[in-house]
Amino acid sequence: MAMSNTTVQPPHTQSPDTSALDYFKSAISDEIRYVSEQKAAGRGIVGFYCEFTPRDLILAADAVPICLCGTSQNTISHAETLLPANLCPMIKSSFGYALTGGCPLLNDSDLLVAETTCDGKKKMYEVLSRDKNMHVLELTQKPDEERAFKHWLAEVEEMKEKLEQTFQLKITEQKLRDAIKAMNEERRLILAIQELGKHKPSIVSGYEVAQTRYRVAGFYQHMEQMENFLTMAQERIAQGYQAAPIHAPRILLTGCPTGHGTEKLIEIIEECGGVVVVQEACSGIKGVYEEVSEQGDPLEAIARKHFNIPCSCMTPNKKREEMLKTLARDYQADAVIDLVWQACHTYNVESVLLHDFVRNELGLPYMKVETDYSSSDREQLKVRVQTLLELTQ
Amino acid sequence: MAMSNTTVQPPHTQSPDTSALDYFKSAISDEIRYVSEQKAAGRGIVGFYCEFTPRDLILAADAVPICLCGTSQNTISHAETLLPANLCPMIKSSFGYALTGGCPLLNDSDLLVAETTCDGKKKMYEVLSRDKNMHVLELTQKPDEERAFKHWLAEVEEMKEKLEQTFQLKITEQKLRDAIKAMNEERRLILAIQELGKHKPSIVSGYEVAQTRYRVAGFYQHMEQMENFLTMAQERIAQGYQAAPIHAPRILLTGCPTGHGTEKLIEIIEECGGVVVVQEACSGIKGVYEEVSEQGDPLEAIARKHFNIPCSCMTPNKKREEMLKTLARDYQADAVIDLVWQACHTYNVESVLLHDFVRNELGLPYMKVETDYSSSDREQLKVRVQTLLELTQ
């Protein structure tokens, strides 16, 4: 796929070494090989579908944590032979991989850790559990109540026990502390890449940043290549490279997560001359914004960090507004675009509140985009996005 | 509206006194008057939108419990000016009443008790809470885990405190016991009416039984009229009255709840010559199947009874299958029809599992009907239902 920012990149600035970018674009094949090797070497493989699932805990069980969220349009028609069509494309795509057996990472998984974050996933997991070894985490959804946190903590403790049983080992406090440290380092690298978006003029496009997200956590190659990506960015600064003109409208993208193959909206924004300076979604900054505390009880620290994720499944989800306020300021956003995957009820309804918050509290233009993984609405979306960008200038 | 069973009622059998039936058809006006009087007399008025909300607790606070679930197509277009169109009609209809101010029962409510049972409602409540005094109950959703029950129990305790604060009173243990007793009596009456469906040949139609459901609990008139309805049924038996021919296909209706004005599917089934012998939904038998225990701690008993409701928001929801098995046997069902309101993800996905259960475990024909409150698909549904009924004969 061509880089999406070719239309906005000033011709006189040439990007330095882009090998890190190339790496992440095709990292899935390295991941498949790595997971297969790790499995052969006796390590456990644990798949999951949500940012609320603590990778730290899976690493502490010396297992490989893999985010299995489906980002392919191709598996959706398979899913729809069993699931209702009126579900979010991420759920259908993920389920389609299970039906077709087309995802080696899923096929290699010894255990799936599911969660009760949204209705569609919660019930899809029941269908999936007919064929897969599954453990369900119950996420309580009143984020401001200590009692809700205590229940979540107990669920995280139960997940620890499940991992211990599954892989016949003991997750010691030291293993937890080591895993937290490793994941914090990984989160810091991801965050550092996201924070490149703060530069004005932009030194990286939103599309480039989105490319650096991957599925397998705790994989040394990814860490090396994230370092390389950061080095590339420093070289770009040194060379005066601009990923977008200084007056390109700076977009804060919020809402549902994107993934490899579902960057449609990011591509459109940047094809239209804007630049996605930060993505608030869990495919962006949401999951790495806060670290796991390295003080105190490690399991409680893991539970706390994840409980604080400002997902629309929470009620009320005031932390999302706080985060958007901070991001809009720090990344000098000119407008907010809210991506809602079709049939994602929580983000879809929360948009009613977000619209008012962005317009009235942040004083920024707001646009909600409800779409799916297909490209059928591309031209229509382009007109809408183009119009929004015009209005910001 | 004409009684829907006129086409199947044998001409030689005349129904006895139908005054109870007439009463329930227009009971809303009595309810509006009653609630207004009670409010004027100083009683608290508490609205809610879900069978999980314990009416017992509201009665124990000497307040009037009102189910506010919207069943009007007319308010949906109003709701869609703010909410996404892709939400279940019950959520939109309920919200539409809040926007239009067209429901005196809602307008009279001092407090709304909401819950986290499904994504659409959970987030709709956040929008509603901008204008209404609201308390949110968090329902944990792993029905087989004692820890989940404990959290729910704590939420029910918090609801008690909220009621005490709101209405400046103390809910004593005696008040709880009295309220449980009163609600158990009411539930027994509702259940007795539902159980009339066991008769073969049918002495009441599903449409008639559906008419007897109401909104305001603890209202003496309703109790009297339910007694009258039961008396009418006894007279019908004595007179050999048949609400449907003995060979009319007996339908177990499951899935989403119906209400006054949304009996479309029941009407169609009975217009096509079938008879709905029992409705498993919370507008049918689901909420009254189990009583609150009058032994032990009353608050725990209230929490337990409600936690046991086999709603599709639970994961997994095995109790629904158990209930369907019992109902199919006790009501001599010939087929199961599963009503799914459009965009109700939990019932929609659970249908995948239910299809297999009904076909393989119960050995009965199964049909899922996904529809909304409009009548636009009436003729199409009629063809499908007619075909199903043919296949059962």
From TrEMBL, chains A, B:
UniProt keyword annotations, A-Z: Coiled coil
Gene3D superfamilies in the cross-refs: 1.20.1270.370, 3.40.50.11890, 3.40.50.11900
Coiled-coil annotated residue ranges, if any: 153-189
Pfam families: HGD-D (PF06050)
Keyword presence, Coiled coil: yes
Entry annotated with the keyword Coiled coil: yes
Superkingdom, taxonomy of origin: Bacteria
Protein family according to the UniProt entry: Belongs to the FldB/FldC dehydratase alpha/beta subunit family.
Listed PANTHER family: 2-HYDROXYGLUTARYL-COA DEHYDRATASE, D-COMPONENT-RELATED (PTHR30548), DEHYDRATASE SUBUNIT YJIM-RELATED (PTHR30548:SF6)
Protein name as annotated: (R)-2-hydroxyglutaryl-CoA dehydratase beta-subunit, putative
Organism: Photobacterium marinum
